[in-house]
Amino acid sequence: MKVQFTLNGAPADVDVRADEMLLDVLRERFGLLSVRETCGLGVCGSCTVLVDAEPISSCIYLTPMAQGRSITTVEGLGGTHPVQRAFVEAHAFQCGYCTPGMILATKRLLEETPHPTDHEIDTALGGNLCRCGCYLKIRDAVHLAAGNAGG
Amino acid sequence: MSDPTRSSDTMSDPRADGSIRYSQDMEMEGMWHARILRSPYAHARIRRIDTSAVPEGVVVLTRDDIRDLNRYGCQIRDESVLAMDEVMFVGAPVVAVAAATRRAADEALPLIDVDYDELPAVFTEMEAIAPGAPLVHPRHYISENDAAYFGMRPIDGTNICHRFRIRHGDVDRAFAECDVVVEEVFTTDSAAHVPMEPHASLARWHEGRLEVWSGTQTPFNNRMDLAGIFGLQPEQVRIVCPPMGGSFGAKTFVRTEAIAAALARKTGRPVKVVLDRAEEWQTMNRHPATLWMKIGAMRDGTLVAKHVACWANTGAHADSGPGVAQKMGYASPGPYRIPNVWVDSHCVYTNTPPNGAYRGYGQMQCIWASERLMDMLARRLDMDPYTLRMKNILREGDTYCTGEIMHDVAFEECLRRSAEAIGYHTSDDHAGKGVCVLMKGMQTPSRASIAIEAEDDGTFTIRCATIEMGQGARPAIRQMAAELLGVPMERVTYPDPDTDLVPYDTRTTSSRSTHVMSRALVEAVRDLEKNGKRGVGEVTDKGGLDPDTGQGIASSHWHQGAAGAVVDVDVETGKLHVRHVHASIYAGKVVRRAAAELQNEGSIIMGLGTALFENITFDGGQVTNANLSDYNIPSFHDMPRITHDLVEREGAQVYGLGETALPPIPAAIGNALAASGIHMTALPMTAERVLASIDGGGTVDEARRREMRDIVEAGLHRSEKS
């Protein structure tokens, strides 16, 4: 079936089977390799993309559900988005595999809560796992991106 | 060293813009995708494999395709590319398929029919050493891979694939003279590494050579094993190592590479293997262990004797388990002066998925036991556990029980800093507060070499086998090279390690790379200054232990650290709340501060998972929680107050610190519970186990302790005493 959506600001259409997950379509049809699978169950956040600004797990998101919506991956942020710069500045990653998901979830958090507390960060990013254990520096990055005092 | 060159470094980063490419992202013209059919039985004979229903367009690899291939294994040669006559664990690869798409490969798996005759199986290390236990492998063949670098002592006709001993002083007489003796049995469950990126490799045959792109910590070991499997010279195998999305020991030695290579041989195409998440639990986990320890002291707290017997469950393949058991054994006395030490450490086969290197490499298990035991002894002596440690701790110039003299010793400083950081001394009873101190060996002997090439455009290229898995070794090596060369860091490049281009290095394990390469670089730069075009530096660390006496040099360079924890417990539910955890790690000289901090923080957080909730559960040898919904790893929701420090000294060497802060975390938390009267012997310290200890009045299981003593005395070492 044909599905049309906006992908990183540009119109996109793709012919998929009804059961194809957005993760696979973004990786295989569009070469967006920042979208990465870890758990395959929607519990780890590695494959997070924004659908109409909301973070979703693309490993369990059926592609036809994206019809008419706007999808953003980290490639769409261009590399110099304030959240990306804050992650680099705060050294908020090690292997970098979970980082695109963390950055997109942070982008949404700051749109809703411009100056989050540690607790609000933990709640918003609680579904994004980082096995390298960069959580403390990711918190620093979020505070930095938010321009929080002492962040 | 100067401040990291942040200016150019922080403008962009391939990890933040998503452009970093891992092994799983590798693509090649004409490439096919592999999937693996795995054993549903823990131990069975394969009667028949029927692949006749697999459609055209899918290539099937069975045991009949690989009869010309040799067995392999980094320390014991106990693996074949696919199961031949028998399967020895649930998840053992039986058939592999390749197709143009992953979906087509996936859909072929249920069309394959395999008949099995089930055989008796054994699952725990203590079952496996019992008389008459089913044998996983009747005979043990020592590998020629240079990962089998120490005196291997497999025992044919048993499930023991390695045993290691320390014999120091006269233990029997010493215990008889002690005022106080305590003993206990400790256990640790299995845990999963959970790298966010799964195991992935891509193989092709090109002009008579095998080429493999693989996220692996052990490129040269994989080259040796793959050459051995396919009957090639090592130079006929090329391994290229893209960065990894985490490893923590999981991506060591041959994992998916041999299947990719055998499928590439059969299909005549490049073939990529990317494991499903569930397959990770069937590929490589951490050794569960049982440790019996006895320690004796004089009334004033002077340590006199220690006796250790421990068993590491390595699963159905030894992998690097013999090395894990050896390190578990030689660090089990702890960083103390003990004149009489007797250690028997064993690596034991069972019919469970293979266990291998895991951040900490056996040290977490032995430190859990030995540091919990120190607190038990302190309580019996009516001494403060901190004071007891300080009274006996190894100091500069002391001799360890292996006979080696300790240099650049920092245990005391690490312990003092950790205790102060958690406010240990602010109350007399220390309720809810615990400390732990540890020593951790580094790969010894080992060899490291590095080359620097001067390019015509004024830049420099580093040729080095050290791989990147997020630990920051490659940036650290680039930075050190830039400082030695006197150029900005952006003029030094470090391409992905490629065994065709880089000089030999033992492997990227045991937190050795930044340390050994810091030394090899000095020589390489000196050599470059002489030659102008290419400079090579090499360092060799001699040493090693006699496997029958444990005497020699265990580690050319000891990793040192300590931790402290503050906890409280809900006595109604057993729920344990960690309020604060601190680790003090000896760094010698920090190279890249942020990266060093990240390694400390990551180790502490991984240690919290091990301490509190991570354990792989089994039913009949089958992992029952092989997914990230049932197997939890620490998240933002699990963060207590975490602090740490990097202990530095003027003029000191660079010390590795990739894993030192993990092993002490569980014992520090266990000791904090002990200070509140809750005695824990098993990891993880789940609410159920904490509650059981509270309900049992914090007492130990005397029957189990007696049973263990019987095993030790009847068993495996008294009869071998010579």
Tags for this entry?
heterodimer, A: 151 residues, alpha+beta, five-stranded mixed β-sheet, 5 helices, B: 722 residues, Aldehyde Oxidoreductase, domain 4, 3 domains, 28 strands, 25% strand, globular, disordered N terminus
Show the helix and strand layout:
The complex is a heterodimer of chains A (151) and B (722).
Chain A: E1 2-7, E2 10-15, H1 22-28, E3 48-51, E4 54-57, E5 70-72, H2 82-89, H3 99-112, H4 118-125, H5 135-146
Parallel strand pairs in A: 1-5
Antiparallel strand pairs in A: 1-2, 3-4, 3-5
Chain B: H1 6-9, E1 32-38, E2 44-50, E3 58-61, E4 86-87, E5 93-99, H2 102-108, E6 113-118, H3 125-128, E7 160-168, H4 171-177, E8 180-188, E9 200-206, E10 209-214, H5 219-230, E11 237-240, H6 257-267, E12 271-274, H7 277-280, E13 289-297, E14 303-315, H8 321-330, E15 340-349, H9 363-381, H10 385-392, H11 411-421, E16 433-440, E17 446-454, E18 460-464, H12 473-485, E19 492-493, H13 513-531, E20 534-541, E21 544-545, E22 552-553, E23 559-569, E24 576-588, H14 593-612, E25 618-619, E26 622-623, E27 641-648, H15 664-675, E28 682-683, H16 687-695, H17 702-714
Helix pairs in contact in B: 8-9, 9-15, 12-13, 14-15
Characterise this structure.
The complex is a heterodimer of chains A (151) and B (722). Chain A has helices at residues 22-28, 82-89, 99-112, 118-125, 135-146; strands spanning 2-7, 10-15, 48-51, 54-57, 70-72. By secondary structure, chain A is an alpha+beta fold. In chain A, a hairpin with a 2-residue loop joins strand 3 and strand 4. Chain A is globular, with a radius of gyration of 15 Å. Chain B is α+β, with helices and mostly antiparallel strands. Chain B folds into 3 domains: 32-119 and 193-280, Aldehyde oxidase/xanthine dehydrogenase, molybdopterin binding domain (Aldehyde Oxidoreductase, domain 4, 2-Layer Sandwich), CATH 3.30.365; 161-192 and 285-442 and 550-714, 2-Layer Sandwich (Aldehyde Oxidoreductase, domain 4); 446-541, Aldehyde oxidase/xanthine dehydrogenase, molybdopterin binding domain (Aldehyde Oxidoreductase, domain 4, 2-Layer Sandwich). In chain B, a hairpin with a 6-residue loop joins strand 23 and strand 24 (576-588). Chains A and B meet through helix 2, helix 3, helix 4 and helix 5 of A and helix 14 of B.
